[in-house]
């Protein structure tokens, strides 16, 4: 009984800020402006600018997930093969823990102050090198800029989630491979590669879900237009609503929940497959 009492604040928090909003989104997605049941909101998800926003969100999330996974895995490997108690590992792990959570308005401001129209790097390149970063377009405030900014927190997140898998590679496996006459290629082909593939793909899916659900950074950086789904939802929740489509924002939210749930479900399956190897 005491254990349940201790868990009450946590359950109340989850119920208030996760379960209750999810239920509202679920029921609202199937209601029209008069509260009647309809599939019209979900049908709209596959048409016009709403569908385009989903496509752009998936493309942005997939691209930043791949970039973050590749460079993050290389960085993780660099610290995993080094001294486990060394200064480099401690600095990278601690820095990754901070930078993975460094998002929202502070991250957007950091990039504006660095590579914005009057940012430090922008002015230096323009005044001293003759390079104008915004000669072609205002790329920082569109999908290319979001790709750059999202990658900033995707790489350290990859370090955090992929490092335990690399640490789980036991030295005895490499020694056994060498004693049987195997080469490094043999080891990675038959031992290391198959073991690391599921956690790598799982981390890739986690990065995808992380980017797909990100809102605050994009909201602070993109002031006009709604190129991705979270900003589309913002538009519907702040009054930019077409008559008769008041619940379309909830349908968009339901679509995001479904996409993220699929990614996380596949991630769980991959983690179960590799769990027995890294225990």
UniProtKB/TrEMBL annotation:
Task: Tell me how this protein sits in the membrane.
Answer: Multi-pass membrane protein
- The UniProt record lists the ABC transmembrane type-1 domain at 54-269
Answer whether the UniProt record assigns the keyword Transmembrane to this protein: yes
SUPFAM superfamilies, per the entry: MetI-like
* Keywords for the protein's UniProt record, in alphabetical order: Cell membrane, Membrane, Transmembrane, Transmembrane helix, Transport
For this protein, the parts annotated as crossing the membrane are: 6-29, 36-54, 60-80, 92-117, 147-166, 251-270
Q: Could you confirm whether the keyword ATP-binding appears in this record?
A: no
The UniProt entry's sequence similarity note says:
Belongs to the binding-protein-dependent transport system permease family. CysTW subfamily.
Q: What is this protein called?
A: ABC transporter permease
